[in-house]
Amino acid sequence: MRQRIQKLLDEKVNPMVSGHGGYIELVDYANRIAYVRMSGGCQGCASASATLSDGVERAILRAFPRIKEVVDVTDHGAGHNPYYS
Questions:
Q1: At 49, which CATH number?
Q2: 28: exposed, middle or buried (C-beta count within 10 Å: 0-12, 13-18, 19+)?
Q3: C-alpha pair distances (Å), 77 with each of 5, 29, 31, 52, 70
Q4: Is residue 85 part of a domain?
Q5: How many domains does the structure of the chain reveal?
Q6: C-alpha gyration radius of the chain
Q7: Does residue 27 register a pLDDT over 90?
Q8: Is the pLDDT at 85 greater than 60, yes or no?
Q9: Burial (Cβ within 10 Å: 0-12, 13-18, ≥19) of residue 10
Q10: Does residue 9 form part of some domain?
C-alpha cells in the first residue's frame, strides 16, 4: 500500500505542487492513516493546509477509499523558502 500511495503522489499530486517548488512524500501508512510530509515550497507555505485538504487528501481518499485519514507531519516552522509566506 505504501508504494501505491507514493506512486499516486508522484504521478498526480507532485506535478501540481512542483510548479511552486513543492514536493509531498509518504512518510508512513498505518491503521488506515497515511502520514505525509511536505517539503520545498510547500513547507511553511500559508496555503499548505488548503493544499493538503483540497489536493493531497482528496486524491488519496478518492484513490484509496479504505484510508480513513491523511495526516500532515511536516514541521512547517522549519520551512526555508515557502511559496506563500
A1: 3.30.300.130
A2: middle
A3: 26, 24, 27, 16, 20
A4: no
A5: 1
A6: 12
A7: yes
A8: no
A9: middle
A10: yes
- State the residue range of the domain holding 51: 2-77
Which of these, 61, 1, 55, lies nearest to 26 by C-alpha position? 1
- What's the confidence (pLDDT) of residue 47? 87
66 by DSSP, 3-state: which?
coil
- pLDDT at position 46 is 84
Is residue 72 in a domain?
yes
What contacts 11, CB < 8 A, 6 or more positions away?
A: none
In a domain, 20, yes or no: yes
Coil, strand or helix at 60? helix
pLDDT in tens, 34-78: 999 999 988 888 888 999 999 999 999 999 999 999 999 998 888
